[in-house]
UniProtKB/TrEMBL annotation:
Classification via InterPro entries: Na-dicarboxylate_symporter (IPR001991), Na-dicarboxylate_symporter_CS (IPR018107), Na:dicarbo_symporter_sf (IPR036458)
GO CC aspect terms: plasma membrane
Pfam families in the record: SDF (PF00375)
Comp. bias (Basic and acidic residues): 451-464, 478-487
Localisation: Cell membrane
The organism of origin for this protein: Micromonospora zingiberis
PANTHER family tied to this protein: AEROBIC C4-DICARBOXYLATE TRANSPORT PROTEIN, PROTON/GLUTAMATE-ASPARTATE SYMPORTER
Membrane topology: Multi-pass membrane protein
Identification of the protein by name: Cation:dicarboxylase symporter family transporter
Length: 487
Protein backbone atom coordinates (compact mmCIF):
# COMPACT_ATOMS: atom_id res chain seq x y z
CA UNK A 1 0.00 0.00 0.00
CA UNK A 2 2.67 2.59 0.87
CA UNK A 3 4.40 1.90 -2.45
CA UNK A 4 1.30 2.94 -4.39
CA UNK A 5 0.56 6.01 -2.30
CA UNK A 6 3.91 7.62 -1.60
CA UNK A 7 4.98 8.40 -5.19
CA UNK A 8 1.84 10.50 -5.76
CA UNK A 9 2.25 12.65 -2.68
CA UNK A 10 5.38 14.67 -3.30
CA UNK A 11 4.81 15.51 -6.97
CA UNK A 12 2.96 18.85 -6.95
CA UNK A 13 4.29 20.37 -3.71
CA UNK A 14 7.88 19.21 -4.12
CA UNK A 15 8.41 19.60 -7.84
CA UNK A 16 9.91 23.10 -7.50
CA UNK A 17 11.51 22.51 -4.12
CA UNK A 18 14.78 20.84 -5.17
CA UNK A 19 15.63 23.62 -7.63
CA UNK A 20 14.39 26.58 -5.60
CA UNK A 21 15.41 25.77 -2.07
CA UNK A 22 15.35 28.89 0.08
CA UNK A 23 18.51 30.21 1.62
CA UNK A 24 18.56 30.85 5.35
CA UNK A 25 18.12 34.61 5.00
CA UNK A 26 15.03 34.09 2.84
CA UNK A 27 13.10 32.47 5.70
CA UNK A 28 10.87 34.64 7.86
CA UNK A 29 11.91 32.92 11.07
CA UNK A 30 15.52 33.96 10.41
CA UNK A 31 14.57 37.63 10.48
CA UNK A 32 12.41 37.07 13.56
CA UNK A 33 15.45 35.67 15.36
CA UNK A 34 17.50 38.62 14.12
CA UNK A 35 14.86 40.94 15.57
CA UNK A 36 15.02 39.13 18.90
CA UNK A 37 18.81 39.36 18.96
CA UNK A 38 18.82 43.07 18.14
CA UNK A 39 16.14 43.66 20.77
CA UNK A 40 18.29 41.99 23.41
CA UNK A 41 21.29 44.11 22.42
CA UNK A 42 19.31 47.37 22.47
CA UNK A 43 17.60 46.48 25.75
CA UNK A 44 20.93 45.82 27.48
CA UNK A 45 23.08 48.56 25.95
CA UNK A 46 20.44 51.27 25.51
CA UNK A 47 17.75 50.53 28.11
CA UNK A 48 16.21 54.01 27.86
CA UNK A 49 15.70 53.53 24.14
CA UNK A 50 14.46 49.97 24.54
CA UNK A 51 11.88 51.03 27.11
CA UNK A 52 10.26 53.25 24.47
CA UNK A 53 9.87 50.54 21.81
CA UNK A 54 6.86 48.70 23.17
CA UNK A 55 4.64 50.34 20.56
CA UNK A 56 6.33 48.27 17.84
CA UNK A 57 5.20 45.03 19.45
CA UNK A 58 1.75 46.48 20.14
CA UNK A 59 1.44 47.53 16.50
CA UNK A 60 2.22 44.03 15.27
CA UNK A 61 -0.12 42.34 17.74
CA UNK A 62 -2.95 44.71 16.82
CA UNK A 63 -2.43 43.96 13.14
CA UNK A 64 -2.82 40.27 13.90
CA UNK A 65 -5.87 40.77 16.11
CA UNK A 66 -7.65 42.70 13.35
CA UNK A 67 -7.98 39.61 11.15
CA UNK A 68 -8.14 36.79 13.70
CA UNK A 69 -11.87 37.10 14.48
CA UNK A 70 -13.06 37.01 10.83
CA UNK A 71 -10.56 34.23 10.11
CA UNK A 72 -11.87 32.05 12.92
CA UNK A 73 -15.50 32.80 12.02
CA UNK A 74 -15.07 31.89 8.36
CA UNK A 75 -12.99 28.76 8.95
CA UNK A 76 -15.31 27.37 11.63
CA UNK A 77 -18.40 27.96 9.48
CA UNK A 78 -16.78 26.27 6.49
CA UNK A 79 -15.56 23.42 8.69
CA UNK A 80 -19.02 22.76 10.13
CA UNK A 81 -20.71 23.04 6.74
CA UNK A 82 -18.15 20.65 5.31
CA UNK A 83 -19.39 17.86 7.56
CA UNK A 84 -22.60 17.67 5.56
CA UNK A 85 -25.08 16.82 8.30
CA UNK A 86 -25.79 17.75 11.89
CA UNK A 87 -25.01 14.27 13.21
CA UNK A 88 -21.43 14.58 11.98
CA UNK A 89 -21.22 18.11 13.38
CA UNK A 90 -22.34 16.89 16.80
CA UNK A 91 -19.99 13.91 16.76
CA UNK A 92 -16.95 15.97 15.82
CA UNK A 93 -17.86 18.73 18.28
CA UNK A 94 -18.28 16.24 21.13
CA UNK A 95 -14.93 14.60 20.46
CA UNK A 96 -13.27 18.02 20.21
CA UNK A 97 -14.72 19.24 23.52
CA UNK A 98 -13.83 16.00 25.33
CA UNK A 99 -10.24 15.99 24.08
CA UNK A 100 -9.64 19.70 24.71
CA UNK A 101 -11.01 19.55 28.26
CA UNK A 102 -8.98 16.43 29.03
CA UNK A 103 -5.71 18.02 27.98
CA UNK A 104 -6.57 21.28 29.76
CA UNK A 105 -7.26 19.46 33.03
CA UNK A 106 -3.96 17.58 32.73
CA UNK A 107 -2.11 20.84 32.00
CA UNK A 108 -3.69 22.59 34.99
CA UNK A 109 -2.97 19.62 37.25
CA UNK A 110 0.62 19.29 36.07
CA UNK A 111 1.16 22.98 36.79
CA UNK A 112 -0.12 22.54 40.33
CA UNK A 113 2.00 19.43 40.89
CA UNK A 114 5.20 21.06 39.64
CA UNK A 115 4.81 24.33 41.53
CA UNK A 116 4.15 22.44 44.78
CA UNK A 117 7.12 20.13 44.28
CA UNK A 118 9.69 22.72 43.19
CA UNK A 119 8.32 25.68 45.22
CA UNK A 120 10.26 28.40 43.35
CA UNK A 121 8.49 31.13 45.35
CA UNK A 122 9.66 29.89 48.73
CA UNK A 123 12.23 32.12 50.36
CA UNK A 124 11.41 35.29 48.44
CA UNK A 125 9.80 36.61 51.63
CA UNK A 126 7.75 39.54 50.31
CA UNK A 127 5.74 41.50 52.88
CA UNK A 128 2.18 42.10 51.74
CA UNK A 129 1.86 45.26 53.85
CA UNK A 130 4.87 46.99 52.31
CA UNK A 131 4.75 45.48 48.82
CA UNK A 132 4.37 47.93 45.93
CA UNK A 133 1.92 46.35 43.51
CA UNK A 134 1.42 49.37 41.27
CA UNK A 135 3.06 47.58 38.34
CA UNK A 136 0.01 45.34 38.12
CA UNK A 137 -2.64 48.09 38.30
CA UNK A 138 -3.54 47.93 34.62
CA UNK A 139 -3.66 44.14 34.62
CA UNK A 140 -5.86 44.06 37.73
CA UNK A 141 -8.21 46.65 36.24
CA UNK A 142 -8.58 44.60 33.05
CA UNK A 143 -9.10 41.43 35.06
CA UNK A 144 -11.77 42.99 37.27
CA UNK A 145 -13.58 44.18 34.17
CA UNK A 146 -13.48 40.68 32.69
CA UNK A 147 -14.03 38.60 35.79
CA UNK A 148 -17.73 39.27 36.29
CA UNK A 149 -19.49 37.81 39.30
CA UNK A 150 -19.90 34.14 38.48
CA UNK A 151 -21.08 31.51 36.07
CA UNK A 152 -24.03 33.67 35.02
CA UNK A 153 -21.72 36.36 33.72
CA UNK A 154 -19.65 33.76 31.89
CA UNK A 155 -22.73 32.40 30.12
CA UNK A 156 -24.03 35.88 29.34
CA UNK A 157 -20.60 36.76 28.02
CA UNK A 158 -20.92 34.06 25.38
CA UNK A 159 -23.72 35.97 23.67
CA UNK A 160 -22.83 39.24 21.91
CA UNK A 161 -25.11 42.26 22.07
CA UNK A 162 -25.11 42.35 18.28
CA UNK A 163 -23.68 40.28 15.46
CA UNK A 164 -20.89 42.75 14.74
CA UNK A 165 -20.03 43.56 18.36
CA UNK A 166 -18.29 40.20 18.77
CA UNK A 167 -15.91 41.11 15.95
CA UNK A 168 -15.46 44.73 17.00
CA UNK A 169 -14.64 43.77 20.59
CA UNK A 170 -12.50 40.79 19.57
CA UNK A 171 -14.46 38.36 21.77
CA UNK A 172 -13.38 35.00 20.35
CA UNK A 173 -15.85 32.92 22.35
CA UNK A 174 -18.69 35.03 20.99
CA UNK A 175 -17.26 34.73 17.48
CA UNK A 176 -17.11 30.94 17.92
CA UNK A 177 -20.74 30.81 19.06
CA UNK A 178 -21.85 32.84 16.05
CA UNK A 179 -19.77 30.66 13.74
CA UNK A 180 -21.32 27.48 15.12
CA UNK A 181 -24.84 28.87 14.74
CA UNK A 182 -24.20 30.07 11.19
CA UNK A 183 -22.45 26.82 10.24
CA UNK A 184 -25.35 24.72 11.54
CA UNK A 185 -27.88 26.98 9.79
CA UNK A 186 -26.05 26.68 6.47
CA UNK A 187 -25.89 22.91 6.88
CA UNK A 188 -29.66 22.85 7.36
CA UNK A 189 -30.11 24.92 4.18
CA UNK A 190 -28.33 22.27 2.14
CA UNK A 191 -27.85 23.28 -1.51
CA UNK A 192 -29.27 26.73 -0.87
CA UNK A 193 -26.34 27.50 1.41
CA UNK A 194 -23.67 26.59 -1.13
CA UNK A 195 -22.96 30.13 -2.29
CA UNK A 196 -22.66 31.46 1.26
CA UNK A 197 -20.25 28.67 2.23
CA UNK A 198 -18.18 29.27 -0.90
CA UNK A 199 -18.06 33.01 -0.15
CA UNK A 200 -16.94 32.41 3.43
CA UNK A 201 -14.28 30.00 2.19
CA UNK A 202 -12.96 32.82 0.03
CA UNK A 203 -13.09 35.19 3.02
CA UNK A 204 -11.07 32.72 5.09
CA UNK A 205 -8.37 32.41 2.46
CA UNK A 206 -8.31 36.18 1.99
CA UNK A 207 -7.70 36.56 5.72
CA UNK A 208 -4.91 33.98 5.40
CA UNK A 209 -3.35 36.19 2.77
CA UNK A 210 -3.64 39.26 4.99
CA UNK A 211 -1.98 37.45 7.89
CA UNK A 212 0.74 36.25 5.53
CA UNK A 213 1.47 39.90 4.68
CA UNK A 214 1.28 41.02 8.31
CA UNK A 215 3.78 38.33 9.28
CA UNK A 216 6.52 40.28 7.53
CA UNK A 217 6.22 42.82 10.33
CA UNK A 218 6.89 40.05 12.87
CA UNK A 219 10.66 40.76 13.11
CA UNK A 220 9.90 44.39 13.96
CA UNK A 221 7.34 43.34 16.56
CA UNK A 222 9.76 40.84 18.09
CA UNK A 223 12.49 43.48 18.19
CA UNK A 224 10.27 46.03 19.94
CA UNK A 225 8.85 43.53 22.42
CA UNK A 226 12.19 42.14 23.55
CA UNK A 227 13.86 45.56 23.64
CA UNK A 228 11.04 46.92 25.81
CA UNK A 229 11.05 43.95 28.19
CA UNK A 230 14.77 44.10 28.86
CA UNK A 231 15.07 47.88 28.71
CA UNK A 232 12.13 48.55 31.02
CA UNK A 233 12.64 45.85 33.61
CA UNK A 234 16.31 45.04 33.30
CA UNK A 235 18.18 41.79 33.63
CA UNK A 236 17.84 41.92 37.43
CA UNK A 237 14.36 40.46 37.02
CA UNK A 238 15.89 37.25 35.79
CA UNK A 239 17.87 36.95 38.98
CA UNK A 240 15.05 36.77 41.53
CA UNK A 241 12.48 35.07 39.29
CA UNK A 242 14.72 32.74 37.29
CA UNK A 243 13.59 29.74 39.37
CA UNK A 244 9.94 30.37 38.53
CA UNK A 245 10.69 30.85 34.85
CA UNK A 246 12.78 27.69 34.76
CA UNK A 247 10.08 25.69 36.55
CA UNK A 248 7.47 26.90 34.06
CA UNK A 249 9.51 26.07 30.97
CA UNK A 250 10.41 22.68 32.46
CA UNK A 251 6.73 21.93 33.08
CA UNK A 252 5.84 22.85 29.50
CA UNK A 253 8.57 20.53 28.24
CA UNK A 254 7.38 17.69 30.48
CA UNK A 255 3.80 18.20 29.30
CA UNK A 256 4.80 18.05 25.64
CA UNK A 257 7.15 15.08 25.89
CA UNK A 258 5.60 12.95 28.63
CA UNK A 259 1.90 13.62 28.04
CA UNK A 260 1.47 14.70 24.43
CA UNK A 261 4.26 12.35 23.33
CA UNK A 262 2.42 9.14 24.31
CA UNK A 263 -0.79 10.55 22.82
CA UNK A 264 1.05 10.99 19.53
CA UNK A 265 2.23 7.39 19.78
CA UNK A 266 -1.34 6.18 20.27
CA UNK A 267 -2.41 8.22 17.24
CA UNK A 268 0.29 6.60 15.11
CA UNK A 269 3.07 9.18 14.84
CA UNK A 270 6.11 10.38 16.79
CA UNK A 271 6.28 13.64 18.70
CA UNK A 272 9.75 14.58 17.45
CA UNK A 273 8.76 14.05 13.83
CA UNK A 274 5.77 16.30 14.40
CA UNK A 275 7.91 19.00 16.05
CA UNK A 276 10.32 18.88 13.12
CA UNK A 277 7.39 19.26 10.74
CA UNK A 278 6.20 22.50 12.42
CA UNK A 279 9.66 23.87 13.27
CA UNK A 280 9.15 27.03 11.18
CA UNK A 281 5.94 27.84 13.02
CA UNK A 282 7.59 27.17 16.37
CA UNK A 283 10.41 29.60 15.59
CA UNK A 284 8.00 32.30 14.44
CA UNK A 285 5.95 31.89 17.62
CA UNK A 286 9.13 32.00 19.70
CA UNK A 287 9.92 35.40 18.24
CA UNK A 288 6.43 36.89 18.38
CA UNK A 289 5.14 35.12 21.53
CA UNK A 290 1.75 34.72 19.86
CA UNK A 291 0.40 31.45 18.51
CA UNK A 292 -2.28 33.25 16.51
CA UNK A 293 0.28 34.59 14.07
CA UNK A 294 0.71 31.14 12.52
CA UNK A 295 -2.94 30.07 12.51
CA UNK A 296 -3.28 29.92 8.70
CA UNK A 297 0.07 28.17 8.33
CA UNK A 298 -0.96 25.50 10.83
CA UNK A 299 -4.26 24.93 9.04
CA UNK A 300 -2.46 24.47 5.74
CA UNK A 301 0.09 22.11 7.28
CA UNK A 302 -2.51 19.99 9.04
CA UNK A 303 -4.42 19.60 5.77
CA UNK A 304 -1.22 18.71 3.94
CA UNK A 305 -0.52 16.07 6.60
CA UNK A 306 -3.72 14.20 5.81
CA UNK A 307 -6.35 15.85 8.01
CA UNK A 308 -9.65 16.57 6.21
CA UNK A 309 -10.45 20.21 5.57
CA UNK A 310 -13.63 20.19 7.67
CA UNK A 311 -11.80 18.74 10.68
CA UNK A 312 -9.04 21.35 10.45
CA UNK A 313 -11.59 24.12 9.95
CA UNK A 314 -13.31 23.27 13.21
CA UNK A 315 -10.55 22.03 15.53
CA UNK A 316 -7.74 24.52 14.90
CA UNK A 317 -9.78 27.73 15.40
CA UNK A 318 -11.69 26.21 18.32
CA UNK A 319 -8.42 25.16 19.91
CA UNK A 320 -7.32 28.78 20.07
CA UNK A 321 -10.01 29.34 22.70
CA UNK A 322 -10.49 25.92 24.30
CA UNK A 323 -7.12 24.15 24.07
CA UNK A 324 -4.57 26.54 25.54
CA UNK A 325 -2.41 24.04 27.41
CA UNK A 326 0.50 26.42 27.93
CA UNK A 327 -1.81 29.07 29.35
CA UNK A 328 -3.36 26.48 31.66
CA UNK A 329 0.05 25.49 33.03
CA UNK A 330 0.97 29.15 33.51
CA UNK A 331 -2.26 29.96 35.37
CA UNK A 332 -1.97 27.36 38.13
CA UNK A 333 1.77 27.85 38.51
CA UNK A 334 1.48 31.64 38.55
CA UNK A 335 -1.25 31.70 41.18
CA UNK A 336 0.54 29.37 43.60
CA UNK A 337 3.89 31.08 42.97
CA UNK A 338 2.43 34.40 44.12
CA UNK A 339 1.13 32.73 47.28
CA UNK A 340 4.54 31.16 47.93
CA UNK A 341 6.30 34.51 47.45
CA UNK A 342 4.20 35.98 50.28
CA UNK A 343 4.54 32.85 52.46
CA UNK A 344 0.83 32.07 52.11
CA UNK A 345 -0.20 28.44 52.45
CA UNK A 346 -2.97 27.49 50.00
CA UNK A 347 -4.87 24.38 51.18
CA UNK A 348 -5.24 21.45 48.81
CA UNK A 349 -9.00 21.90 48.62
CA UNK A 350 -8.57 25.51 47.57
CA UNK A 351 -6.04 24.51 44.95
CA UNK A 352 -8.49 22.00 43.47
CA UNK A 353 -11.22 24.65 43.47
CA UNK A 354 -8.79 27.01 41.75
CA UNK A 355 -8.07 24.34 39.12
CA UNK A 356 -11.77 23.83 38.40
CA UNK A 357 -12.37 27.57 38.20
CA UNK A 358 -9.45 27.99 35.81
CA UNK A 359 -10.79 25.17 33.64
CA UNK A 360 -13.67 27.50 32.82
CA UNK A 361 -11.86 30.83 32.87
CA UNK A 362 -9.07 29.61 30.58
CA UNK A 363 -11.60 29.13 27.78
CA UNK A 364 -11.49 32.14 25.54
CA UNK A 365 -7.98 33.23 26.53
CA UNK A 366 -6.84 34.28 23.09
CA UNK A 367 -3.49 33.17 21.72
CA UNK A 368 -2.35 36.77 21.42
CA UNK A 369 0.66 37.69 23.54
CA UNK A 370 -0.25 38.90 27.03
CA UNK A 371 -3.77 37.45 27.18
CA UNK A 372 -2.62 34.73 29.57
CA UNK A 373 -1.66 37.28 32.24
CA UNK A 374 -5.09 38.93 32.16
CA UNK A 375 -6.76 35.51 32.35
CA UNK A 376 -4.60 34.62 35.35
CA UNK A 377 -5.54 37.90 37.01
CA UNK A 378 -9.24 37.27 36.39
CA UNK A 379 -8.92 33.86 38.04
CA UNK A 380 -7.00 35.17 41.05
CA UNK A 381 -9.70 37.83 41.49
CA UNK A 382 -12.09 35.06 42.52
CA UNK A 383 -9.62 33.90 45.19
CA UNK A 384 -8.30 37.30 46.26
CA UNK A 385 -9.15 36.52 49.88
CA UNK A 386 -6.32 33.94 49.79
CA UNK A 387 -4.00 34.93 46.93
CA UNK A 388 -3.32 38.70 46.78
CA UNK A 389 -3.87 40.22 43.33
CA UNK A 390 -1.15 42.81 43.96
CA UNK A 391 1.29 39.90 43.73
CA UNK A 392 0.76 39.97 39.97
CA UNK A 393 3.31 42.79 39.98
CA UNK A 394 5.94 40.11 40.60
CA UNK A 395 5.37 38.42 37.26
CA UNK A 396 4.19 41.32 35.08
CA UNK A 397 7.79 42.14 34.20
CA UNK A 398 8.65 38.61 33.09
CA UNK A 399 5.36 37.85 31.38
CA UNK A 400 6.93 38.43 27.98
CA UNK A 401 9.49 35.72 28.73
CA UNK A 402 6.73 33.39 29.93
CA UNK A 403 4.55 34.20 26.94
CA UNK A 404 6.89 32.37 24.57
CA UNK A 405 6.53 29.17 26.58
CA UNK A 406 2.75 29.51 26.68
CA UNK A 407 2.48 30.17 22.95
CA UNK A 408 4.81 27.32 21.98
CA UNK A 409 2.91 24.84 24.15
CA UNK A 410 -0.46 26.10 22.90
CA UNK A 411 0.66 25.75 19.29
CA UNK A 412 2.09 22.27 19.80
CA UNK A 413 -1.01 21.05 21.59
CA UNK A 414 -3.43 22.44 19.01
CA UNK A 415 -1.70 20.75 16.10
CA UNK A 416 -1.49 17.43 17.90
CA UNK A 417 -5.11 17.75 18.96
CA UNK A 418 -6.19 18.21 15.35
CA UNK A 419 -4.38 15.07 14.23
CA UNK A 420 -5.64 13.04 17.19
CA UNK A 421 -9.26 14.09 16.68
CA UNK A 422 -9.01 13.28 12.97
CA UNK A 423 -7.66 9.84 13.90
CA UNK A 424 -10.44 9.44 16.48
CA UNK A 425 -13.10 10.12 13.84
CA UNK A 426 -11.41 7.70 11.44
CA UNK A 427 -10.77 10.41 8.84
CA UNK A 428 -7.01 10.83 9.19
CA UNK A 429 -5.02 9.74 6.14
CA UNK A 430 -2.38 7.84 8.10
CA UNK A 431 -0.28 6.96 5.06
CA UNK A 432 -0.04 10.56 3.98
CA UNK A 433 0.74 11.67 7.54
CA UNK A 434 3.55 9.13 7.80
CA UNK A 435 5.02 10.27 4.49
CA UNK A 436 4.81 14.00 5.26
CA UNK A 437 6.31 13.63 8.74
CA UNK A 438 9.14 11.54 7.31
CA UNK A 439 9.66 14.10 4.51
CA UNK A 440 8.73 17.50 6.00
CA UNK A 441 10.39 19.42 3.15
CA UNK A 442 7.75 17.99 0.80
CA UNK A 443 5.36 20.65 2.12
CA UNK A 444 6.08 24.24 1.07
CA UNK A 445 3.71 26.25 3.27
CA UNK A 446 4.23 29.56 1.48
CA UNK A 447 3.57 27.95 -1.90
CA UNK A 448 0.47 26.19 -0.62
CA UNK A 449 -0.95 29.42 0.76
CA UNK A 450 -0.41 31.03 -2.64
CA UNK A 451 -2.02 28.06 -4.38
CA UNK A 452 -5.10 28.33 -2.17
CA UNK A 453 -5.46 32.03 -2.92
CA UNK A 454 -4.90 31.47 -6.62
CA UNK A 455 -7.53 28.74 -6.75
CA UNK A 456 -10.03 31.01 -5.03
CA UNK A 457 -9.35 33.69 -7.65
CA UNK A 458 -9.21 31.49 -10.74
CA UNK A 459 -11.00 28.24 -10.01
CA UNK A 460 -14.76 28.13 -10.46
CA UNK A 461 -16.96 26.76 -7.74
CA UNK A 462 -17.82 23.68 -9.77
CA UNK A 463 -15.35 21.80 -7.61
CA UNK A 464 -17.70 22.12 -4.70
CA UNK A 465 -18.78 19.01 -2.92
CA UNK A 466 -22.30 18.11 -4.00
CA UNK A 467 -23.26 17.46 -0.42
CA UNK A 468 -22.47 20.84 1.15
CA UNK A 469 -20.91 23.12 -1.40
CA UNK A 470 -17.63 23.26 0.48
CA UNK A 471 -14.67 22.99 -1.89
CA UNK A 472 -13.03 19.61 -1.39
CA UNK A 473 -9.58 21.10 -1.65
CA UNK A 474 -6.59 20.58 0.52
CA UNK A 475 -3.42 22.60 0.15
CA UNK A 476 -2.11 20.53 -2.76
CA UNK A 477 -3.58 18.80 -5.76
CA UNK A 478 -1.85 15.64 -4.62
CA UNK A 479 -3.90 15.67 -1.46
CA UNK A 480 -7.08 16.27 -3.46
CA UNK A 481 -6.38 13.23 -5.59
CA UNK A 482 -5.67 11.09 -2.57
CA UNK A 483 -8.91 9.18 -1.86
CA UNK A 484 -8.11 8.67 1.79
CA UNK A 485 -7.85 12.39 2.53
CA UNK A 486 -11.48 13.50 2.50
CA UNK A 487 -13.95 10.70 2.78
Amino acid sequence: MPNTTTPELPAPPTAPAPTRRKRLWQHLYFWVLVGIGLGIVVGITLPEVGAQLRWLATLFINLVKVVIAPTIFATVVVGIAGLGNLAKVGGLALRTVVYFNLTTVVALGLGLLTINLLQPGKGLGYDLNSFDGSAADDTIANANAAAGSGIQDFILGLVPTSFMSAFVDGQLLQVLLLAILVGVALTMLGQRGRRAVAALDTVAKTMFGVIKLVMWVAPVGAFGGIAFTIGEHGSKILGSLAAFMGAFWLTCLVFILLFLGPICRLAGFKIFQYLRYIKDELLIVLGTSSSETVLPRMMVKMEAAGTPKHVVGLTIPTGYSFNLDGTAIYMTMGAIFIAQAFDINVPLGTQIALLLFMLVSSNGAAGVSGAGLVTLAASIAAFDHIIPMVGLALIVGIDRFMSEGRALTNLTGNGIGTLVIARWTGELDRERLAYVLANPTSVDTEALLREDLARDTEAPRDTEAPETGVPVTTPSEATDREPATVR
